[in-house]
Design brief:
The complex is a heterodimer of chains A (226) and B (168). Chain A is α+β, with helices and mostly antiparallel strands. Chain A has six helices and five strands. A five-stranded antiparallel β-sheet of chain A has the order 1-2-3-4-5. With 168 residues, chain B is mainly alpha-helical. The C terminus of chain B is likely disordered. Classes of the chains: A alpha+beta (226), B mainly alpha (168). At the A-B interface, helix 1, helix 3, helix 5 and helix 6 of A face helix 1, helix 2, helix 3, helix 4 and helix 5 of B.
């Protein structure tokens, strides 16, 4: 029996081997259940690590400061001087909710053809279909929907609809922004509707999201038809 | 609409582990990308080009600052949504994975992020990090082996919790 270096097994999982080595690894896997299990474990790790990094994509970001610094290479760490006034550190300006071009529109306009296609959100590919993985997949639909909603709330004008689709689960939906208003406390809130097949249940949902001081969208939603 | 900005930010965050510094790096990198878009080679991945810009900016800052980054807080990759108990067990698992990744040396963490999470090839990751393919390969292997060993260690404990949780 051929013994493979650990790095070779890992390269197999990462799809980095040439065809001959792939064939050799797969041949060995058929004869060696331990090896097959080991490789499966690395594949599961891929799914786990992707899922673990997923929430970081939903961090809300302040508006892009266009032309705020000269050449970043040299101006580099002078950048903090262009931060919004106030306590340095975590503080961020409220989102520009209406009327402005969002950063990616600016980017697209500036460079042309820059925006990466489609309407579906970046979906974490979750791994095997057993046990906790099912739980993770269900979670993943929520993550995708939430990411779509957050992006919409943060960057789009009322009236905009966005579709999302999770290739992994085959679930998807449409979210539409209805209107934007400000509460008497000055908090920005946005009303939206969502239709989705989240967790296998088609539902029509109406919701309100308000932007917290921590720059998060706190969402309340009510199912109006399922 | 898909945007690359969250992924650029994530790359910066995993690199520097400070939300504000990551934000600055992201802003600077996107500005630079826009002013130098002609340097992007068509047919290559736009994401890895942006990662490379972030990485370069960071290297420049490091030399400018003369390295004062001993006390970095641990990654606080707390999920932002709240959807109840149902996902509690997967949360726990993911929190564990994040803790384990956080213990990896930065070199290995970056290789893991680029290849496993972002799906770059070894070649592309080597290009972003400006090291050889062999170096990236061994960093990634060490990261994956360490992670697997740590998860094996944890397995008896978390398996019990997962089964008891049984949300589905």
């Amino acid at each position: 029996m051929v013994a493979f270096a650990e790095a070779t097994l890992i390269a197999y999982v990462d799809d980095e081997l040439d065809a001959a080595t792939v064939a050799a690894v797969e041949q060995a896997m058929r004869n060696d259940p331990d090896l097959a299990r080991k490789i499966q474990a690395y594949k599961d790790d891929t799914a786990l690590v992707r899922a673990a990094f997923e929430p970081m994509l939903h961090h809300s970001l302040p508006p892009l400061r266009m032309g705020a610094s000269a050449d970043p290479a040299t101006a580099g760490h002078d950048l903090p001087s262009v931060r919004p006034a106030g306590r340095p550190g975590r503080r961020r300006k409220p989102a520009r909710i209406t009327g402005h071009m969002s950063w990616w529109m600016t980017l697209a306009a500036a460079v042309g053809g820059f925006v990466i296609g489609g309407t579906s959100v970046y979906v974490s590919a979750l791994g095997t279909d057993s046990g906790t993985w099912l739980a993770l997949q269900a979670h993943s639909d929520r993550l995708v929907e939430t990411a779509t909603l957050d992006n919409l709330l943060e960057n789009q004008l009322s009236g905009t609809s966005v579709e999302w689709f999770n290739e992994r689960t085959g679930h998807g939906g449409v979210i539409t922004l209805i209107r934007t208003f400000q509460t008497t406390e000055g908090q920005y809130c946005r009303e939206f509707t969502a239709t989705s097949t989240l967790d296998d249940t088609p539902a029509q949902v109406r919701g309100v999201a308000c932007r917290s001081d921590q720059d998060e969208w706190r969402t309340r939603r009510r199912v109006i038809e399922s | 609409m898909v945007t690359l900005r969250p992924r650029v930010y994530r790359f910066a965050y995993v690199l520097v582990r400070s939300p504000d510094e990551a934000d600055d790096l992201t802003q600077a990198a996107l500005e630079r990308a826009m002013t130098r878009h002609e340097q992007w080679q068509e047919g290559t991945r736009l994401d890895s080009w942006l990662f490379k810009i972030v990485h370069n900016l960071w290297l420049n800052r490091l030399s400018a600052e003369n390295v004062r980054r001993q006390h970095r807080p641990a990654l606080s990759l707390v999920p932002t949504e709240e959807d109840g108990v149902r996902n509690a067990e997967s949360r726990l698992t993911l929190a564990l994975v994040r803790r384990l990744i956080d213990k990896l040396p930065q070199d290995q963490r970056m290789a893991l992020l680029l290849i496993v999470v972002e799906g770059l090839s070894y070649r592309e990751a080597a290009d972003v990090l400006e090291v050889s393919v062999g170096t990236v390969t061994s960093r990634l292997a060490r990261a994956r082996i360490a992670l697997r060993a740590a998860l094996d260690d944890e397995a008896p404990r978390t398996a019990a919790g997962t089964l008891a949780g049984g949300g589905l």
